[in-house]
Amino acid sequence: MKRVLIFFGGCSSEYDVSLQSAAAVLTHLRPGACTPIPVGITRRGDWRYFSGPVSAIADGSWEAGPCVPCTLTMERGRSRLFLLDGSGTTLAFDAAFPLLHGQNGEDGTLQGLLELMDIPILGCGCLASTLCMDKHRAHLLAAAAGVSVPRGIVLDEQAGAEAIRAAAAQVGYPLFVKPVRAGSSFGVTPLAGPAGLEAAVALARRYDREVLVEEAVDGIEVGCAVLGTHRLTLGAVDEIQLAGSFFDYHEKYTLETASIRCPARLDAAVEAAVRRTAEAVYRALDCRGFARVDLFVTAAGTVKFHEVNTIPGFTAHSRYPQMMARAGLPFDKLLDAILDGEEGQ
């Protein structure tokens, strides 16, 4: 039976989201599908082998449970977890399944470490994870592959008030100000006009050294789940119905006023264009294993790239599992496909 490290937590603003994804995956793994080895990463970045109940991960109390400091053995080609309790115990494993959202986990940092040790990864590798977290450079590569992308200008940490105003004027209002590298809409501000521009940039800079000033696309946001590496399986296309100005962190995880329609209300030709675009972006950014490609569809039916989530939410009600379920892969079968497919190459 395959033994899989399940990474969760992490020193990121999306720590709590990761706990929910990991708890859901551990709960929905089919008996006998694999032997999970849970490794929690604290908000400080400390690694802990966790042998307690899944419920403690779900409610956030896992750190107070049975935890042992741990690390990888750092011997290339020997996939082993070394327990730092003085016992000398090592736990052999076959692959790693990162369920870390945002920076310090979804951005290629952990994936790079795993690749250095020649550890198979379930999901995207270092290159794709790094590129997809970087909204600006992901857009450049998607555009080079012939995909339409929103107008945007990047401001570095030295850009002053004049450069900020000039960038906004060039992009045009309405627009979004966002960190180049962050997830779950942290640090993102929609602006209808110049009021609040500098404050929005200051907020974005709390999450990353580079800030993206990007046009607000007049259309709906849709997503497409993609599974596989060489032979791809695409899930149903979903649609975000907004009551507010954008799909922020609160709405993403509460759906207090927003809602998700799956499948999306698109005619067949537009849906086919969305699926083609999702596949083109997935391949252009070297994605492997699984990812969710988010796109915009304008009133004229034009499809524009938004972003890729290389580790999308994995709760039972999250968008990625729901899209795959509509395509005929319920959660347990989806996890089987991730564990047994082409991933980890």
Provide a brief overview of the structure:
By secondary structure, this protein is α+β, with helices and mostly antiparallel strands. It folds into three domains: 3-122, Rossmann fold, CATH 3.40.50.20; 132-148 and 219-340, ATP-grasp fold, B domain (D-amino Acid Aminotransferase, Chain A, domain 1); 157-208, Dna Ligase, domain 1. It has eleven helices and 16 strands.
Describe the structure in your own words.
With 345 residues, the chain is an alpha+beta fold. It has eleven helices and 16 strands. The protein folds into three domains: 3-122, Rossmann fold, CATH 3.40.50.20; 132-148 and 219-340, D-amino Acid Aminotransferase, Chain A, domain 1, CATH 3.30.470.20; 157-208, 2-Layer Sandwich (Dna Ligase, domain 1). The strands form three sheets. The chain has a seven-stranded mixed sheet with strand order 6-5-4-3-2-1-7, sandwiched between helices. β2 (35-41) and β3 (47-50) form a beta hairpin. α3 (109-116) packs antiparallel against α4 (126-133). The protein starts with a strand and ends in a 5-residue tail after the last helix. The mean pLDDT is 93.
